[in-house]
Design goal:
Layout: E1 17-19, E2 24-26, H1 28-45, E3 53-55, H2 61-70, E4 78-80, H3 85-98, E5 111-112, H4 120-130, H5 141-156, H6 160-170
Parallel strand pairs: 3-4, 4-5
Antiparallel strand pairs: 1-2
Helix pairs in contact: 2-4, 3-5, 3-6
């Protein structure tokens, strides 16, 4: 999260978050709209639009975001998972490095991860903005090392993690 005297790309108000991927400063209103639109459009693009959902309360920050976006748990036929962009980028990287079977799938018939395009940084900035309490995840060991590598790629090429996820999806890894 980057707070500065910059102006929102859309409306000119004080910026709350800088999206390196979009190369835009966004105010709180437009940051929220962008994230919610991204999560909901992920559902629509994968054909889950008319489904009733159920959510798994694991206490994670991702669950808290899903609960905010979808407001209620409908006990539907599709379970919304709580994995974010970093989880999928790591799954793709580990698949290529060690042929490790991915622990996360974007969508199956009865399960879907609508946050697969939302980074932890965006997630935490959103929850902070809304005053929603959460616990940050820690990444250690091999996972932490690989995640640091992926974050370095992301710094050098904004959108690098998302590109890896889209590539992994395209070839059927995740």
């Amino acid at each position: 999260m980057e707070k500065s005297a910059s102006k929102c790309f859309t409306c000119g108000r004080e910026a709350y978050f800088y999206s390196a991927y979009l190369k835009q400063n966004l105010c709180k209103k437009h940051f929220e709209k962008m994230l919610i639109r991204r999560v909901r459009s992920a559902l629509i693009s994968k054909g889950y639009k008319q489904k009733a959902f159920r959510m798994t309360d694991d206490g994670s920050a991702a669950y808290r975001m899903l609960k905010f976006v979808f407001k209620k748990d409908d006990n539907g036929t599709v379970t919304l998972e709580n994995s974010v962009l970093e989880d999928f980028a790591l799954a793709v990287l580990e698949y290529f490095l060690a042929k490790k079977k991915p622990a996360h799938q974007i969508g199956l018939k009865t399960r879907f991860n609508p946050l697969y395009q939302v980074s932890e940084e965006e997630l935490y900035a959103f929850l902070d903005m809304k005053g929603i309490k959460y616990k940050k995840r820690t990444h250690g060991g091999r996972e932490g090392y690989l995640l640091d590598f992926m974050k370095d790629v992301e710094k050098r090429r904004p959108g690098g993690m998302l590109s890896a996820v889209k590539m992994g999806e395209k070839i059927g890894v995740i």
